[in-house]
Amino acid sequence: MGSHTVIPFGPQHPVLPEPVHLDLELEDEKVIRAIPSIGYVHRGLEKLVEKRQFTEYVYVAERICGICSFGHGWGYCKAVEGNMNIEVPPRARYLRTIWHELSRLHSHLLWLGLLADGMGFESLFMNAWRLREQILDIFEATTGGRVIFSVCKVGGVRRDIDNSTLRGISQKLLDMRAELKRVTDTFFEEPTAVSRLRGVGVLSREKAQDLCCVGPMARASGIPLDIRMVDTDGAYQDLNFQPCLSNDGDCYARCRVRVDELFTSIDLIRQAVEKIPEGDLSVPVKGNPAGEFFTRIEQPRGEALYYVKGNGTKYLDRMRVRTPTNINIPALVQTLQGCDFADVPMLILTIDPCISCTER
Amino acid sequence: MSYLHFARTILSSLFKKPATRNYPAVPRKYPEITRGKIVMNIENCIFCGMCMRKCPADAITVTRAQKKWEINPFSCIQCGCCVETCPKKCLSMQQQYTQPAPQKSEEVFYARVPDHPADSRNSKPAGK
Q: Which end of chain A is more exposed for a tag (fewer CB within 10 A), N or C?
């Protein structure tokens, strides 16, 4: 036949957690071109930096996204601290690392649930989210919030976790490991799940490099890009870990990388709990930021960039976030070309789209 | 690869207690530090307006002349910034969240002045 059909996909679609719209140009059942468009949840949070004092803006920065909220708060604080040459106390650096890695656990478990839901595996979806609930309980007991923590501030953290609670968290995560392994192995052992993932949406290493992929998307194509390896603000330099890699570049590899990262995060938290030093939680902030500063952190979805520009007053001139999903969308469009129409949900889900971060 | 891989999880779920709670018959126990709702103890308030200036959501309005402190609980983002800032420590966090309501109303508090009619209005939602 060979007739072209354009199918609109999203922004409201059962498999999509976030509002992204794609115009899929089909030839029979094959996608030959995909045109993405975003812009459904823009809230103007970057502009709000001109109206809020730089110390209070961290609460707004956290609300850029509900899933990577701690990372955004930390990224903003890191940028302002770099701008003002503030040295964060070691205990605060460790606590930030622990909360950030717990956020990664919660984000990846949420994503695994969504992936299972996308392929119609409802009980696996429920089980992934049941495990995620235990992480949310840890958050609520240590920060007072389930997804928005409000514990990070410019110069350190607002709240301490006492050492016995930290050891309790470490033990809880250790107890969780076996069950986590049993649930996540289903993605790699169950033939129905594997058939939806294996060989679907292959992104070669060269293509991933050309399209500047970040995060698990890049690591699944064999690019060892993990900002935690070069991080100096968190506790990562004192901890022992390797980025999780795969060379296949398909949906299976992207799932594998994220599942491996769950276990790496548990190891990192356990190491951090062992090594956490005593000391102050924050340093007083004197003066106002002036000049520009760039920094980056490894969010659960990949590398995020933070830029602040101060003018010597309490209000910043500009704050900019470059989010991982924004960078991974070209790779998504690339993998969609030539795929089956039925695989489109898997491809969109495996970049782990976070459109609310992307649009802010 | 085996079709039976997930069977163990499914079978054990048949004999385990549910992972969910029978809400609202079994209410949720909140941790001590849960940030639910801002509570005001107007007795100690000096109407300095620090909370109003620090609030990232513009949820608090302090009118010094009338000795009036009001909060829009539906705008509040429960960051706890005002609780931390308050010089007299008259603000605190309650574990329970703001109850749902058909209308977005504000909570208004007035300073207690002896024989002042405003006293009777304390803690009542102002409504529309």
A: N
**Chain-chain contact of A144 with B3 (C-beta, under 8 angstroms):** no
B31 interface with A at CB cutoff 8 Å: yes
User: In the structure encoding, which two tokens stand for residue A73, read together?
Assistant: 């708060």
Percent of chain B residues topping a pLDDT of 90: 1
| Helix orientation angle between B7-15 and A163-189, rounded to the nearest 10 degrees | 130
Helix%, strand%, coil% for chain A, nearest 5: 50, 15, 35
Our CA-based measurement puts residue B28 at a distance from the nearest CA of chain A, in whole angstroms, of 12
Q: What is the pLDDT of residues A266-301, one digit of tens each?
A: 999 999 999 899 888 889 888 888 889 999 999 998
To the nearest whole angstrom, how far is the Cα of A314 from the nearest Cα of chain B? Answer: 12
Cα-Cα-Cα-Cα torsion A231, A58, A52, A44, nearest 10 degrees, comes to: 80
Contacts of A348 (CB under 8 A, 6+ apart): A15, A16, A20, A22, A332
* Interchain pair A63, B30: CB under 8 A: no
Choice among A99-113, A155-169, B2-16, B27-41 with the minimum mean pLDDT: B2-16
Q: Is B34 within 8 Å of chain A by CB?
A: yes
- pTM value is 0.88
User: A101-115 pLDDT, tens per residue?
Assistant: 999 999 999 999 999
Which residue in chain B has the smallest CA separation from A141? Answer: B31
Among A60, A141, A192, select the one facing B31 at the smallest CB separation.
Answer: A141
- From chain A, pick out residues whose CB is under 8 angstroms from the CB of B50: none
Q: Is B72 on the interface with A (CB under 8 A)?
A: no
CB atoms A185 and B54 under 8 Å = no
Instruction: State which residue of chain A sits closest to B35, comparing Cα positions.
Output: A144
The widest CA-to-CA distance across chain B, in whole angstroms, is 80
**Is ipTM > 0.90 here?**
no
Q: Is A67 helix (H, G, I), strand (E, B) or coil?
A: coil
Q: Which long-range contacts (CB under 8 A, 24 or more apart) does A276-279 make?
A: A276/A91, A276/A94, A276/A95, A276/A98, A276/A163, A276/A166, A276/A235, A277/A90, A277/A91, A277/A94, A278/A91, A279/A89, A279/A90, A279/A91
Of A121, A261, A198, A258, the residue nearest B6 (C-alpha): A121
Res. B116 pLDDT band, cuts 50 70 90:
low
